């Protein structure tokens, strides 16, 4: 046998291992919590309490829980002892779902903001590019101005040259 050292933990033999899936417990706790918060549950509980009291008042021969109704109080205490943690567990699971949903909403909002900023930049770039392009109206005005300028130059040229006998026309044709 080897000597045991104080710095080495002793091996424990586990005889009974009880594993519960936390999701399964959570799902059932949410079901119980939802049921405890319904009017149906309150109506059933009220009917049970009234029947319990009537049977134990002494009208019938079933007095298993006389007047202070200690057994009924014990039943309510036990129910509360189990209901409170189940309700808290259900609330914690709901908070976790809400937190995940909030994180997802924040991520989507950030993505939407980034997409909007990208589109705004793209739109600004398109506006700048469109500002540099020639529009149809601008081209039409420029062509009309050019035609008017050419017409004015031709008219001025015709005014400058005196009418001649035709020899100038033949010279112009040769040129």
TrEMBL record:
Name by which UniProt lists this protein? Putative membrane protein
* Record Pfam families: DUF1003 (PF06210)
* UniProt keyword list: Membrane, Transmembrane, Transmembrane helix
Q: Which organism is it from?
A: Gordonia humi
Annotated transmembrane regions: 41-62, 68-90
* Segments for region (Disordered): 154-175
| Superkingdom of the organism of origin | Bacteria
């Amino acid at each position: 046998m080897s000597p045991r050292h104080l710095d080495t933990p002793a091996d424990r033999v586990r005889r009974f291992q009880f594993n519960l899936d936390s999701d399964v417990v959570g799902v059932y706790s949410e079901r119980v919590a939802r049921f405890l918060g319904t009017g149906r549950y309150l109506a059933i509980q009220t009917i049970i309490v009234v029947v319990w009291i009537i049977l134990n008042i002494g009208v019938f021969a079933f007095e298993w829980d006389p007047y202070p109704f200690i057994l009924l109080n014990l039943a309510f205490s036990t129910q509360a002892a189990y209901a409170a943690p189940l309700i808290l567990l259900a609330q914690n699971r709901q908070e976790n779902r809400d937190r995940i949903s909030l994180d997802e909403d924040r991520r989507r909002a950030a993505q939407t903001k980034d997409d909007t900023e990208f589109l705004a930049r793209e739109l600004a770039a398109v506006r700048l590019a469109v500002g540099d392009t020639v529009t149809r109206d601008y081209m039409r005005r420029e062509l009309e101005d050019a035609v008017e300028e050419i017409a004015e130059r031709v008219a001025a040229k015709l005014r400058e040259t005196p009418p001649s006998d035709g020899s100038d026309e033949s010279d112009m044709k040769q040129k």
